Amino acid sequence: MRKSLEALYDAAGYLAAFFMVGLLAMVLASVAGRLAGFQLRGSDAYAGYCMAAASFLALAHTLKRGEHIRVTLFLERFERRFKRALDLWSHLAGTFFCAVLAYYSARLVWQSLVFNDISQGNDATPLWIPQIAMAAGSLVLFVAMVDDLMLLIRRRSYRTKAVDELKAVE
Question: What is the rounded distance in angstroms from the CA atom of residue 97 to the CA atom of residue 100?
Fold first, then answer.
């Protein structure tokens, strides 16, 4: 199961990187078009879609690599038992909010598909297409939060090779 979850997080990270390259390509194409004297229609919209996709798809990968910002200064002030209770509470709250985000992101995709919602720009893209990345990223983040919560309940820690290498460098 652990290998499957790691593969899911890595796949989301690779997709995020793919959309980052897509963002770069759209911006470069837009700049090159302006320099050459023509306008590449929809490039700004597609750059925005790529940015949103990269952001949402990278969330779970970033969380599992320990790169999300955590405010541990507050937690370190408490004794071990109370600290664990606060950590459990924060994981439960985070899991709840990720579930809500995943649900409403998927619902937005479904509504855009049902209502045939299209973008307002010249490209007239069906909005459910770029919204899929947001829903997928939110769902993978929810899975990662549930994974973290289960590890915390079982009193195990999630250690990846990347985290171990980072600790060795420090």
Answer: 5
pLDDT tens digits, one per residue of 29-66? 999 999 998 888 888 889 999 999 999 999 999 999 88
Cα gap 29→41, rounded to integer Å: 10
- What's the chain's average pLDDT? 88
Question: How far, in Å, CA of 65 to CA of 47, rounded?
Answer: 26
Angle ∠(131,132,135) on CA atoms, nearest 5: 90
CA distances from 85 to 79, 99, 101, 154, 155 (A): 10, 21, 24, 13, 12
The DSSP code for 120 is: S
Closest alpha carbon to 18 in 163, 136, 168 = 136
Q: In residues, how long is the chain?
A: 170
Element (H, E) at 24: helix 2-36
